[in-house]
Amino acid sequence: MNITVSRKAHFNAAHKLHVSQWSDEMNKEFFGLCNNPNFHGHNYDLIVSLTGEIDPITGYLIDMKFLGQLIKEEIEDRFDHKNLNLDCEEFKTLNPTTENIAVVIWHLLRKRLKETYTLKVILYETERNFVEYNGN
Amino acid sequence: MNITVSRKAHFNAAHKLHVSQWSDEMNKEFFGLCNNPNFHGHNYDLIVSLTGEIDPITGYLIDMKFLGQLIKEEIEDRFDHKNLNLDCEEFKTLNPTTENIAVVIWHLLRKRLKETYTLKVILYETERNFVEYNGN
Amino acid sequence: MNITVSRKAHFNAAHKLHVSQWSDEMNKEFFGLCNNPNFHGHNYDLIVSLTGEIDPITGYLIDMKFLGQLIKEEIEDRFDHKNLNLDCEEFKTLNPTTENIAVVIWHLLRKRLKETYTLKVILYETERNFVEYNGN
Amino acid sequence: MNITVSRKAHFNAAHKLHVSQWSDEMNKEFFGLCNNPNFHGHNYDLIVSLTGEIDPITGYLIDMKFLGQLIKEEIEDRFDHKNLNLDCEEFKTLNPTTENIAVVIWHLLRKRLKETYTLKVILYETERNFVEYNGN
Amino acid sequence: MNITVSRKAHFNAAHKLHVSQWSDEMNKEFFGLCNNPNFHGHNYDLIVSLTGEIDPITGYLIDMKFLGQLIKEEIEDRFDHKNLNLDCEEFKTLNPTTENIAVVIWHLLRKRLKETYTLKVILYETERNFVEYNGN
Amino acid sequence: MNITVSRKAHFNAAHKLHVSQWSDEMNKEFFGLCNNPNFHGHNYDLIVSLTGEIDPITGYLIDMKFLGQLIKEEIEDRFDHKNLNLDCEEFKTLNPTTENIAVVIWHLLRKRLKETYTLKVILYETERNFVEYNGN
């Protein structure tokens, strides 16, 4: 009996889109306003979803307080009120697109969770643009 | 040509999380505030999703008024403005976690729907915590 | 230069509507499902709004972290995961309608805030029903 | 490394539900208010989701500005502020149910996208009723 | 002790913007896509707010079930799944802009409510465009 | 017959909170994470509300396309995908708190609107924190 449990979190961060192998002109042409050298920023909304079997005694897949704490430690404390390009090791060379941030978040959470859980993350850069990654 | 049709519903209920085989101390330690013996409560939001083939004449998978009425009869009339632990047979011994409520709702709807439909339910306990169950 | 700053909070609670001077029949007839003796519950959303002058140095009306902490201490810690009728002194004799809860919240916050702030609260019992109180 | 990228769009349109092979009485009985001969209307919300591999250089699955422009050209310019039954070739004989509109949108977008992308659309007729189609 | 109680409702309708004293060309130039002669439509969201004194016994300003029923009778039954221009007497000569619809709704509700209530309505044509009217 | 018309807009920007007259230590102590020297960012949501008399011919208070275009020119083009501290003259010396940004926006719009309109702006820094300014 598999069930999926989801928890919403969020963090506010600055970033710019920039490919280090490219010239400034090429970056500007490709990424447009998102390449502003002085950065811009977003309120990122994150949904973390785990799939697995319900514990027949507790009726829990996972304790939501534990999951919330884990997201706080691994994701919110790391990225909230940060400049992704300047402050975060993960994006020193990796372009912080929503796609890449979602993949990084997935790996940060994956290594803290039991293997019996399947993991999916959805990351909203804005209400209109979002990305989903499940490790496959 | 398979399509999925979803309908949103909601109900407001009181509950407490409590495992009857455990001592009060163990329940309090494990479930924390959610174990308050006097209960607390939620506005539950429910999304019911059916998958199947579009009727080539009507262009419907299912009549939404019929689906809405079925959800009202099976779910809203049963759980709305109720105390899940005290008023609902389903949770006399089953701990009313969001996971267990979602599974109960899935079975209540499943037995009223034609076998040709695939059924999935998503149950929001709060805006931040939700559960998805599809019977597998 | 007056400005209004608002902060959103929430708490989950059980309650029933019941007028102690009335008979059970009269309560049931008047309040209907909301009078369920075993209680039901809600996710309450709260918006607290303060009006006053911006500090010309800091650019703040009030430090949002301070306001958030004050709402946590006075409102969330008091009402979250509680049964309003049974656990909360404020509603031992006062009927916990959304109107009365909003007035109680206003007074709890008012006595903690400087007189120079004007205070308004909006309390959502559900997405469709809400109440606004400003002390007048 | 597969990822899914989604973009939200919307359009406002009038329509009526009507099966041309049926009598007016049969249409009225089956579709009720939705068969009003003078039409009614909706704010349709659309989520377009593409799945594929992240470009290792840019960190993009697809340029969101390109995807947004494509949705504008194929869907918003075609359906926004239109009467689906009278103004749109697609629904001259096809009943504009949410199911059928979603399938039409999927095909309009599918033919403009590279085959390496998997495509899914979700169409909200209202906040409570929505449909998902992925071409299978 | 004045309090404001609000209730949300909605209706789906078709309309076109058109000033009958103007030529078709002038209408088309001024109202653009909103003048489509075949109509377009919206999901209208309505918030009805009453201000008055809390009843000291019941703790109610007004019974929400009564208010919901009144909005259903006067507004939803009248406008839902209708063509405002063709089906509704109120807009036979009055241009159904959001402004004018809000004023019409205000008057329809005003005449059904006790004079001791102050009345305000907010009408959303879309999530981005809305109008507020309080009779002054 | 006064009516209020509102239009929603948004922009994504980076900023840091910093009082130039203060030492770095004092800024860090007072503003905490919001003082991160490398900036962080937000999706700002803006609601612009105008009050005035409905034009008896058109049924408009103001043409929403005109208002939307004005907000784009004055606010979105100026602040979207910008670093408020580094890229925007308005915040070279003024601390870009939500309060100060709202006041700046109000003045930028006020000078472009006819005096017969009353103007109010609401600015959301996050879903939980927002500010309202009406020029008084």
| Strand order in the largest sheet of chain A | 3-1-2-4-5
End-to-end C-alpha gap of chain A: 22 Å
Question: Given the helix and strand composition of chain A, which structural class is it?
Answer: alpha+beta
Q: Which regions of chain A contain 5 or more consecutive residues with pLDDT less than 50?
A: none
Order of helices and strands of chain A: EHEHEHHEE
| CATH top-level class of chain A | Alpha Beta
Largest interchain contact: A-F, 22 and 22 residues
Cα-atom radius of gyration of chain A: 17 Å
CATH topology of chain A: Tetrahydropterin Synthase, Chain A
Main sheet attributes: strand count, strand direction, barrel closure of chain A: 5 strands, mixed
Q: Would you count the extended β strands of chain A for me?
A: 5
Number of domains of chain A: 1
* Total count of helical runs of at least 4 residues of chain A: 4
Fraction in helix of chain A: 25-40%
What oligomeric state do these chains adopt? homohexamer
Assess the beta-strand content of chain A as a share of residues: 25-35%
Broad shape of chain A: elongated
CATH architecture of chain A: 2-Layer Sandwich
- What would the average pLDDT of chain A be, to the nearest integer? 97
CATH superfamily of chain A: 6-pyruvoyl tetrahydropterin synthase/QueD
Task: Describe this structure as you would to a colleague.
Chain A is an alpha+beta fold and 136 residues long. Chain A has one domain (2-133): Tetrahydropterin Synthase, Chain A. Chain A has four helices and five strands; from the N terminus they run βαβαβααββ. Chain A has helices spanning 24-31, 64-79, 84-87, 98-110, and strands at 2-15, 40-53, 82-83, 118-124, 129-133. In chain A, strands 3-1-2-4-5 form a five-stranded mixed β-sheet. At the C-F interface, strand 1 of C face helix 4 and strand 5 of F. Strand 5 of chain A pairs antiparallel with strand 1 of chain D, so a sheet runs across the interface.
